[in-house]
Amino acid sequence: MVALPDIPLPAGYRADWVLSYHGRDPDGLSERVSGHTITKVLAPAGRAIRLDITLHATHAALKADPDDPTMAEIASLLASAARMLGVSGDVSGLEARAVQDAQVARLLSRCGPGLRLPQTAGVFEALCWAIVGQQVNLRFAGQLRRTLIDLAGLPHASGMKAHPTPTGIAALDPDLLGTLKFSRSKAAYLINAARSGIDFEGLPKGDVATAEAAMTGIKGIGPWTRAYVLLRACAFPDVAPIGDAGLAAALQKFHALDHRPGPAEQEALMRPFAPWRSLATAHLWAGWT
User: Fold this and answer.
1) Is 150 a catalytic residue?
2) Does pTM top 0.90 for this prediction?
3) Which residues of the chain are in CATH 3.30.310.20 domains?
4) CA-CA to 155 of 20 to 30 Å: which in 12, 66, 184, 276?
């Protein structure tokens, strides 16, 4: 493997939360976590490259295989790693507000200023995660995702595979997916999204309203799924996944409510954290659930 440039990590960086997110499926075909190392297979230029990201106190050390990546591949790998580590965006605004705002200071008190919101390596990957995870538990969602990657992913010599592209998913037979434990609707949602013509990887380059509008009207991509993609893949700073059960539970605990807040109340309770509701959501999930 060849070493790539290190990625600096902020003081107090919560590596545990990032490792937990990327290690959700211990048997994952596209990414795995062992100790403090995240292994991810990516295909930035049409060939599978294994990327090892090892987290240290002050930096992340990166290695790639094969050991001859082009400059363009290196740039893409570094960008993907920064996204996965949650350090691709500026979060100083919410942390600065904590100095003057007691509610924000209390929000950050449990996890500290080093908490970051890890992203998926790609936007379409996040969408597939969201769709396979609809109305099923995490274990079964991981099983469906492994099946999807095995069917259409690009193989690496290690035995792992890069996550499929929209073209790869679009070519799948929904009847075949049905024999592999996908519901008819879930198979249709995945294939319809893949065939939608949306430039998913281009969504973060615009604004949040444009990105959400691009996904609106696609069957299977409802409000929660859109919010997940905007939050976990596009790295927009001011997204609150209204309707998310974990967010509702965290808000109930944070505000000591005697009830679980509904969507309208969640919206109102998150409003004081604008325009940094994405990081605020991360703190609520990590510290108040």
Assistant:
1) no
2) yes
3) 2-89
4) 184
